[in-house]
Each structure stands twice: as structure tokens, then as C-alpha cells.
Amino acid sequence: MNLRELVENQAEKYKDKPFLYWQDETVSYSQINELTNKVANFLYDLGIRKGDKVSVYLPNMPQYVYLYLGIPKIGAVTGPVNALFKPREVKFVVGHSEAKAIVTIPKFIPLVNEIKKDLPNLKHVIVIGEPVEGTLNFTELMNKASTDAPHEVDIDEKEDPAAILYTSGTTGFPKGVLQTHFNIRRNAEMIKDFLKAGEDYRFMLILPLFHVNAQIVTIMGPFTIGASCILTPGFSAQTHWETVAKYKASTFSCVPTVLSILLRMPHENLDLSSLKFIICGAAPLPVEVFREFEKTFNCKIVEGYGLTEGTCASSVNPLPTETEDRRKIGSIGIPLPGNEMKIVDNDGNDVPPNSKGEIIVKGDNIMKEYFKNPEANAETLKGVWLYTGDIGYMDDDGFFYITDRKKDMIIRGGENIYPREIEEVLYSHPDVSLATVIGVRDKIYGELPKAFVVLKEGKSVSDEEIIGYCKKNLADFKVPKYVEFRDDLPKTPTGKIMKQPLREEEETKTGKIFNP
């Protein structure tokens, strides 16, 4: 069953039941089908065909959902673009994906206009909001489009992609993950089978919709269940619990940073009666935050693990019941139904329980491939197994733990940052001779990037200037929080910069945890 058939089937089954709550509006399952038909029809009229990419460069809004579910109806591919990206990053993602159309808002039009000349495949710029000269208006296109079923397209759910999402890359450039109709549907079904959530559940969406967690856990999850989604513009610590109470949210999915922030906010006289549990993932959840949050709010946390290459989720701690709590705090749990995980050594051989190795995963949710990246495919996809690059072990009860990363990566508040990308920008600065970036610990975000810089002889640059230069070329979450200038950097005998001594230095600074 492809995503078009899923939307049609759920609309037929649940009809006028609300699927989407947005501020004071509700959108039923039947309306979702009609609105996604309109999206598919106007895109088809514009010449978008099977396999064409449509970039979605938007903040959270209902139209994002209509696009995410409507674009695949004609076999086209949804391309979410991180709304925090700067021109250099947007140009790469839209250009590499060969997108033929981009849907955005007036706020982002100056950026799109700046890069458009370098995007030969981009034929249409569609704007949601006030009309903008030289663009197509989303509302006008929707008003003219038919609600009838769109043009029939032969879709092979296991082979044809429905979405392309870009992950940060160790090479300095993001990699385009192709997720098939089957990947997306099956991962949503795995979440459905695991959570055992009822049709009366309301999933509150607080993460950005360009993130797989928001797409799969809090859109496709409830849609597959026949439940509802409470869509918000994003996480707001000031209004979070008020929104939970107003819409009677059953659960929300978040990253560890959200829980840390909520613990620091006033939390007296809250109405949490509707909450069943909270889902947390995308980065390691510190054990102390886990325990303090559950004690403070009397609400269970379900911690999971996954990656974009696995569509979203691959493992999770068992959901606690009134009579049993099998969770192991500090672990990433056990594989979701339909997933297999194991630990292997550098040669791909299984290792015994409690022995460290690389975590590898297989299942219906494993991506089709990286788009136009055969080298990365060969490194990551080996037979039916996805090599995650995460180092860990499995205990005697089959629970998995992450202890390290094979890949050089920083996780800041659930966002993956590859130092190589920051280093590429630092090296483009005319006064920088050497540069390297590591992650340093932080109470709120888990990790923050810190840059070590050696300037060219006779040059003088402040840390504020380096940070400002990075801000012009990188999304804000990737910009180094700290810059330290050095006369030289530790190197191997062959001249390669060594990061481990720098990490050890940071750890021995009186055990200090960096905090903004």
C-alpha cells in the first residue's frame, strides 16, 4: 500500500473525524484527502511528474502536512529543507536533489532569489502567504485545483521514493536519504504496533516538520492509527503545558533539550491529566534528566533510537504498564517490531553480549539509498544491513546501549552536526591557517560545537569575527559556541590534526560542563 492509497483508505474509514488541530482550526481525515488531492493536481498541472523532487522550505503549518502527503500521490518526491539553513546550505540541498519546484513563504524569498540563478532544474517557486512578484501563489493554485483523485501513477511502494531528506555529512556536504513509500508506511506501523495507542489519542507535534521525528512519529504515527495530531508552530517553553491542557494531548515527541528546558520552567498547578507518556529521542537523554523529569511531572518517558537512514525509529524502551516496567534507563531499548539490531566488529562479525562494536540495523524502514552517492551507499548499506556508525553493546537481556560514535558527529539538542562542515567554512576564512571542531558538554543542549583555530602569520581576528563569519554560512545551530585560538594544533606524525587530545583537555577542566 503506497502513501496515496493509505491516505484514501484512512479518509474512507475515518471520514469527518478530526486528524489535525491547528490553533482554532480542525481538519478531518476526509479534508486531508481532498486537500492532498488539490496539491497533487496543481503540481501535475505544473508539469511535476513521477520521480520529480519538490522542495518544501517552510516552518510548521498545516500546508506542510498537505504537501508531505500530497506530493507522493503523483509519484513525486517531497524534499523537506531545514528552515534554519543559510543560502549556502539551501542551495546545496535544493540543487543536489534536482528539485523542480520549491514551496516556501515570503520571508524566505530573498534567500531563494539569491540562489535561484545557480539552480538550473528549479522551474517553479510557490509561495504560501501574500502574493510575491515572479512566483506562484499557493492559495490561488489550491483554489483552482480539483479535489478529485489525481492522475493515476504506477507506484512501486518498495522501490519508488516518497521523500528525500538531507543528513549532515562527514564529507562536509549533506547526504540525500531516499525513503520509499514502504519505508515510511512500515515505520509508522512499527510505531503504531509498539505504542498500542488508541484512536482517541492526540499526538502533539512540537518539533520542526523538516525533522523525521515530527514527520513519522507525530504525523504518520497518528495518521496510521486513526488518531489525531495537534500541530504547533514549534516548541515554546512558556506555552507548552497550556497547549497540552487546552487540546488534551495524550503524548508528545521531543528531544532531550526540551525536557531539560521544561524542568527549569515554573511547573506548579499544571493540568497533565491527559498525558499518557512522553516520547524522547534524536540524542542521548542524560539519566539525571530522565529521573528528575519523571519525578517532577509524574509522567513516564519512552526513550528511543533511530536515524534518518532508518526512516526514523529503530529501537525503543518497552512502554511501562501499571504492573510492569521493563525499561532500562540509559539504554536505547530493544528493536521495534519488524526491526533487527546487532553488534559487529570491524570485519562485520557478530560480537558476544556486553562487547562493544558497531550497531547495525535491518528492517522494512531502512532507506532505499543515498541519492547520487555510491561511495556512501557502499560504506553504509551492506547486504540487508544498515551500518549506523554508532558504537555500543547489547546486554544479556537484549537491550542496546550507545557508548561512542564511529562517525565524527556532535548532537546539539537533537540536531546532528558534522564538524567537517564547520571546518570547511572556517578554512574558507582568509585569515585561518588551521582549524578543527569538537563537541563540548552542555547542560541544556547536550553538546555544543567548539572551534580551535590557528591564524595565518601576522593576522589578528577576534572570536566574535570568526563566529560572525560562520553565521553567514551556516545554520545557527551549527555555529561554534566557543572559539579558542592556538599557536598550533596537536597532530599525528603524518600531519593529521588529532581531536582526541583536545577532547581530553576539555574533560579535565575541573569537570566543567560548558553552559551558554
Distance between the ends: 47 Å
Largest sheet: 9 strands, mixed
The tally of helices reads: 15
Radius of gyration: 23 Å
Count all strands and give the number.
Answer: 27
Approximately how much beta-strand content do the residues carry?
Answer: 15-25%
Strand order of the largest sheet: 2-1-11-10-12-13-14-15-16
- Give the overall silhouette: globular
Average pLDDT over all residues: 93
Which structural class should the secondary elements be placed in? alpha/beta
- Helical content stands at 25-40%
Low-confidence stretches: 512-516
Describe the fold and architecture.
This protein is of the alpha/beta class and 516 residues long. 30% of the residues lie in helices and 25% in strands. The N and C termini lie far apart (47 Å).
Quick synopsis:
With 516 residues, the protein is an alpha/beta fold.
Short key terms for the protein model shown above:
single chain, nine-stranded mixed β-sheet, five-stranded parallel β-sheet, 15 helices, 27 strands, 30% helix
Layout of secondary structure:
Layout: H1 3-14, E1 18-22, E2 25-28, H2 29-45, E3 53-56, H3 62-70, E4 77-80, H4 87-96, E5 101-104, H5 109-116, E6 124-127, E7 136-137, H6 138-144, E8 161-167, E9 175-180, H7 181-195, E10 202-205, H8 212-225, E11 228-231, H9 240-247, E12 251-254, H10 256-264, E13 278-280, H11 287-297, E14 301-305, E15 315-316, E16 334-335, E17 339-344, E18 357-363, E19 369-370, H12 374-380, E20 381-382, E21 385-394, E22 400-405, E23 410-412, E24 415-417, H13 419-427, E25 432-442, E26 446-455, H14 463-473, E27 482-485, H15 500-507
Parallel strand pairs: 1-11, 3-4, 3-5, 5-6, 6-7, 10-11, 10-12, 12-13, 13-14, 26-27
Antiparallel strand pairs: 1-2, 8-9, 9-19, 14-15, 15-16, 17-18, 18-21, 20-21, 21-22, 23-24, 25-26
Helix pairs in contact: 1-2, 2-3, 2-6, 4-5, 7-8, 10-11
